[in-house]
Specification:
It contains 4 helices and 5 strands. The protein is of the alpha/beta class and 111 residues long. The protein has one domain: Transcription Regulator spoIIAA.
């Protein structure tokens, strides 16, 4: 499968990215390029909606670690939203839930 990245520029300081598809070794370079473009902007708030992502591998996790580092270096913020239970589990297993801001998982929304 492929990965669609829809970028919504809500205002000058907020980039919202909506991901649909799979994040893997094949699609990660495209995602990395888009994320770094946003997170390298000084003071930018970057929100990534993962509700359309059904599969992610370790390459995808690496992209988000890189985006987090980029955001910290530029003084921007990175927030992940809408994770499916399956994708959130990957972040939990690797301990990334402790370092990346994650909000509104689909499980929380169902409650």
């Amino acid at each position: 499968m492929n990965l669609q990245i829809q970028k919504k520029d809500t205002d000058n300081h907020i980039d919202e990215l909506v991901l649909i598809g799979e994040v893997d070794a094949y699609t990660a370079p495209k995602l990395k390029e888009t994320l770094l473009e946003s997170t390298q902007k000084q003071g930018q708030k970057v929100v990534v909606d993962l509700s359309g992502v059904q599969y992610m591998d370790s390459t995808g996790l690496g992209v988000f670690v890189g985006a987090l580092k980029s955001s910290q270096q530029s003084g921007s913020t990175l927030t992940l939203t809408g994770m499916t239970e399956r994708v959130e589990r990957l972040f939990e297993i690797t301990g990334l839930t402790e370092v990346i801001n994650i909000e509104n998982t689909q499980e929380e929304e169902a409650r």
